[in-house]
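Exercise: predict the fold of this chain.
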Amino acid sequence: MRYGQKALLPEPGTFADEKALAAFVLGKLDQWFHIEEQVPGRYWTGEQTRIDAVLRPRESDGWHDEEPAFAVEFKNLAPNTSTGERYSWVAQAVGYTQCQWQGYGRLGVFLCPSPLTWLLSRADEIAAFRQRLISPEMLAKERERIRRYGRQFGKEYSDSYVDAEALIAHRHRLGEMTYEEFTARADGYANAEAREREHDLRMAKELTHLLGQLSVGELMPYEDSGWTLMRSESRLWSEHEGPATVRYSLRPRIGSQRRRH
């Protein structure tokens, strides 16, 4: 995924099933791609299989493969989809990169939505949570609260009294925290959930690069780019910008080979 932009795919549960999701997405992409659905293929073991769709650009200018094509596999992720189910889908996609697809040979596989959406959704607006609550600013807010409280009753507390009461209230708040919450705030987060969100963001970034090395990418809509093909955080195509100027191939790599031309 492109972490500097907001992904626009609807929340899990928006579509009734995978067929509805595929129809919606392929309907959007039809103006840029020739689409063949339910393409048969064969694993190297000889076992037969099918993939949801293979797409070929209607205009090949700017693409860096002689015959550009890529496969898309859809998954209608329910809100309660387990981690095991999500990663079994990823494993399926990795297996698909080794298949020979009828009329196309081996293809790079793009998942829709990103299998990491569940991680990144928890990382939204992380900057808003990164505030130091254990700080001079927090004590200043506590002092102001105590002054306002006194003025409601016509009292003007002395600075020493305000400082003492603010410190007591601050310590009381820290004493009510769990160890996890306390250490998260001490690290500069609003709470333990905010720290977990940043961890999720980092993990998603690492996983995206790992999947890219295995020739698996993501098909997602983004706020500024529209529908976009991403692999290892690199844009290969978007509806607003077209094919990427960096010469990445859609085809699966062989070993550690970089498929650039």
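Check your answer against the key: Residues 18 and 113 are 11 Å apart (CA to CA).
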